[in-house]
Specification:
The protein is mainly beta and 94 residues long. 10% of the residues lie in helices and 21% in strands. The strands form 2 sheets. The chain has a 4-stranded parallel beta sheet, with no helix packed on it. Strands 2-4-6 form a 3-stranded parallel beta sheet, with no helix packed on it.
Length: 94
């Protein structure tokens, strides 16, 4: 699945999604904010690689402990933008 329109600045992942696939946001070059449900347990390699402006905020609907349990594949550093973003845990919006 690719949410690639280059002009997208914000994405809300639907509840029930368990994995954000490899290169899922490859073309979303202006992506700044993403909302992730507690159901996500894995973020695959390069999922946010081409978000060239950097992701400023991750709104996460789970606790800090649940966030720490998410597997984020980043051996090549190509998910640094999601790893280094500010995570807002226990988010109730969207």
């Amino acid at each position: 699945m690719n949410y690639g329109p280059p002009q997208v600045t914000s994405i809300v992942i639907p509840d029930g999604v368990t994995e954000i696939g490899e290169s899922a946001f490859w073309e979303a070059k202006k992506l700044e904010t993403i909302t992730i449900p507690v159901s996500v347990v894995k973020i695959c390699a390069k999922a946010f690689y081409c978000s060239s402006y950097g992701i400023g905020t991750v709104n996460y609907k789970g606790s800090s402990a649940q966030k720490d349990a998410i597997v984020i594949e980043n051996s090549d550093g190509k998910n640094d933008k999601i790893v280094n973003a500010a995570w807002n845990c226990d988010y109730v919006g969207d």
